[in-house]
Amino acid sequence: MENPAGAAPAAVHLDLISQIAITVDDLARAKNFYQNTLGMKFLFDAGSMTFFQCGKIRLMIATPEKPAPRGGTILYFKVHDIQTTYAALRQQGVVFLQPPRLVAPMPDHDLWMAFLADPDDNKIGLMCEMPKAAS
User: Fold this and answer.
1) Residue 30 burial (10 A CB sphere; 0-12, 13-18, 19+)
2) What is the DSSP string of 27-76?
3) 59-80 average pLDDT score
4) Could you tell me if residue 32 is inside a domain?
5) Which of 73, 85, 92, 78 minimizes the C-alpha distance to 33?
């Protein structure tokens, strides 16, 4: 995004997400889902929090100190083959909110997405950039 004419440049430029946090009702159940169903790399537990490594981003799952609303955050995970991932997760009993579908045809690839929810109803998106065949 460019600065409007005459505006001072921003003193801070944030462009790298290091950690994403979501809240859950049952930490053990959520840990099992993210570690064993989605296959994420477990890092460590710390009190009412558990941490996973997702590429360069750390995912923190925690129980809230007070009741917290759900549904405001969507985690999007890039997958190599959305149909294979969809089939494997369905085989593990995951119920999808939306099966894979083409959301945006681009010049050199098609963007596909599918959506599921974790046991605490946090929405998770799967996205796949499928290269177009050379014509």
Assistant:
1) buried
2) HHHHHHIIIIIS--EEEEEETTEEEEEETTEEEEEE--SS----SS-EEE
3) 80
4) yes
5) 92
For residue 106 the two structure tokens come to 């681009």
Host domain of residue 49: 19-131
Tell me how far apart the alpha carbons of residues 36 and 41 are, in angstroms, rounded to a whole number: 9
- By the 8 A CB rule, do 127 and 81 touch? no
CATH of the domain at 119: 3.10.180.10
Give the mean pLDDT of 38-50: 93
What is residue 126's predicted lDDT score, i.e. its pLDDT? Answer: 93
Is residue 33 within 8 A of residue 26, CB to CB? The reply is no
13 occurs within a structural domain: no
Task: Provide the whole-model pTM.
Answer: 0.72
Q: What's the token pair of residue 104?
A: 């945006």
Q: How many domains does the chain have?
A: 1
How far is 130 from 105, CA to CA, in rounded Å? 10
